[in-house]
Amino acid sequence: MTDTPLLCIENVTKSFGATYAVDDVSLDIRRGELFCLLGGSGCGKSTLLRMLAGFEAPSAGRIALDGQDLANVPPHQRDTNMMFQSYALFPHMSVEKNVSYGLRRAGLPRAEIATRVTEMLALVQMERFAARKPHQLSGGQRQRVALARALARRPKLLLLDEPLGALDRKLREETQLELKKIQETLGITFIVVTHDQDEAMTLGDRLGIMREGRIVQVGTPHEVYEFPQSRFVADFIGTVTLFDGTLTEDRPTDAVIDSPEAGGPIRIPHAVTGSVGQSVAVALRPEKIVIGRTPPEGVENRLIGTVETLVYQGAASIFLVRLDSGKSVRVSRSNRERGEAEAIAQGDRVHLGFSGQSAVVLAS
Amino acid sequence: MRRLVPLVPFLWLGLFFVIPFAVLLKISFSEPAIAMPPYLPLWEWADGVLTIAINLGNYIFLTEDPLYLVSYLSSVRIAAISTLVTLLIGYPMAYAIARAPEGRRNILLMLVILPFWTSFLLRVYAWIGILKANGVLNNALMSLGLIDQPLVILQTDIAVYLGIVYTYLPFMILPLYATLSRLDGDLLEASADLGARPLTTFATVTLPLSMPGVLAGSMLVFIPAVGEYVIPALLGGPDTLMIGTVLWNEFFLNRDWPVASAVAIVMVLVLALPIALLRRIQSRAEKA
Amino acid sequence: MRSPVALRIVVVAGFLFLYAPILSLVIYSFNESRLVTVWSGFSLKWYGELLSDPQIIGAAWISLKVAFLSASIATVLGTLAALVLVRGGRGRAVLGGLVTAPLVMPEVIIGLSLLLLFVAMEGLIGWPGGRGLLTIVIAHATFGAAFATVVIEARMVTLDRAVEDAAQDLGAGPLRVFFDVTLPALAPALVSAWLLAFTLSLDDVVIASFVAGPGSSTLPMVIFSKVRLGVSPEVNALATLVIVLVSCLVLIAAWVSARQRVPEA
User: Fold this and answer.
1) Cβ contact (<8 Å) for A84 and C181?
2) Is the pTM of this model over 0.90?
3) Which partner for B216 in A360, B175, C150, C224 could form a disulfide, CB atoms 3.0-4.6 Å apart?
4) Does an interface of 3+ CB pairs under 8 Å exist between A and B?
5) Which residues, 6+ apart, have CB-to-CB distance to A1 below 8 Å?
């Protein structure tokens, strides 16, 4: 029972006229996980969420929650609840009335409603504000009320549309951890829609990255960051330098990619599933590249260039190095020792090195 | 049920706004008669023969008697001049209200709206007491020694202008205020920052950006003013020719319903252009 | 930024222009003399005469009934029209053009065309059975609905659809959503729309003159026939009462909406 997915999305498509907001999406959501749908604006993530809640009907495909097909279930009869981006608190009702609204609709006995509301307000630490109206609360407080209200009915699945989008950065970071804790405590399955990749990485047990109505990759934050399957994902999650090239050798133990941009061949110590002669791109994260005044030791690949821009960020320094091919490479180095950052200055000739193991080869 | 409810406003407006127009058009083509109702039917079905008699006589009549043409022209002239005067008074008021401090702005705005809520008829009536020969204005001017003969204002076109400007001033100020208050203060500061004097800023930034308000306000005054009846009836004199009065008299005094209908149809045609203009401004404002 | 002196003068003069006639109406309503504009001492006698004039009291009663009924119909029509205009549905553009047309149509044309309709319908189906209260109510509801739609629509477009979605998400059916969430949010607009339609109905003389029948003269019709004959101190007294009443209503409405506005901020 626990192995079957809670939510099955099968080939769901939503078209508005000739445009496809959601295009043939299939996805399984596991019980008790916190799943993040990540994508830029207009990628279809909110439309997908609204279809799960029942506000939009799929043009094609099937959505099943716990084995039950949701096709003809209106929003008010679904065992899902939603936390809205605007919070959508009822402006004319107190915090307590907002939180109890769904329970009253469910026809729960009064005593149980009271207990449940107290419980929920305690969960989000809003007990003292029960009698307030939404306009008397700060943004962060409203966010908590919206969460409490959506959780009060104990849905099987909670849908959160940019739940932290309206908070300022500092508060957002605190709330991310709190939200994750609440989710783990209650064991309710969450689907969070966000455009913020840091938030998705922090919150999600798994991420689904969407682009132009399609899901382009699903995986844990680690999988998505370390093994992006496309240029889009590599570029969207974190920062990356891409070297375009041609696959010239592909053996079971190693491969070689000839990249004029990198000024020569790039060696990869494993097979690349591709055909020789195919054009590919090698993706490199800034922190996977070592930088120094002397040629680095113990790496298969070395490059030479000139430091064009140097940004000191406190914990790390970012170097933009212009290779002789004209390609600009982004390198980051953590400032482990004080004074180290000054060791390399703008305009210096530097040596870069990286292990082929840390690079990702992508079909272009 | 959910499908039918939205149809209610359509049905109501169809029955009580669109069909009446069709009837108006129909009767403007019928022959007057001494009967009740005082016109002959447009079509008749007798002995298997359908007789349709479209009578253009009413429209021809409108062109033959100069009274009608003069009345239309005079209505348009009176409405246009009144609109211009209303704009000249309303613009600075709207501008000042939009620039007033937040707290005072709402009070001033309410002071503009308040007369609009009190009876229009009674406000026009108030001017009789002010303008008549031994009215407030003449008494005041005479006691100050500025004049020794009462001014004849009531029952002239001047009184009609005054009445129109007075009653329609809020219609001018409100749309002007709406565009002026939306005007981004940064734009004015940017203009000043780039070297424009206050008057230059007004002429090159404020005025062009408030044109939708100017046009909307002007149309909201001009259109009803053309068809105005109460103001010329109470403040105007025998020489004041306005088409609303002509229509009223055709209907109530001459009991010539077909001619009254023809007068109304022509009035709609005269107003079609300003109405279309107003529509365009309003739909653009909605999109913005 | 301080406004220039010239601007201030225009504003003060403008407000004087708006309020001086109203003020003179009020002042001379307390005048002893019948000659309205010649002051001969303070008196309340015209108020006494006004309240004992059966024609005016009767007409006032008719006007109040007409205004109450037509404002109520206009508000319902306006709410439905605004729902169609804001929430979509077929014929949105047609309705948008149609519903606001009475706003820009001269009153004489609305009055005449409605009267012609009533007469034609009378001949065809025997309804509405003569002119009177019913025909005035229909006429006033029609143009009142135009104003009501504008007021309610303006409010409806600012409503956050997500709030209604939230109610539905929390288990409320469509009707429940309307009464729990939509209606309370619209309430201030419904009140202003009703008041506006009510006032417009109480104020109309032209349309009513066309569609009223014998014995159904409204208050403005009676006032109009009185003042065509010249000034009348009774009308001044009536005007004063109307002004005081309306000012109180507007102030209350402004106070209510000011209190309502805070929550949105």
Assistant:
1) no
2) no
3) B175
4) no
5) none
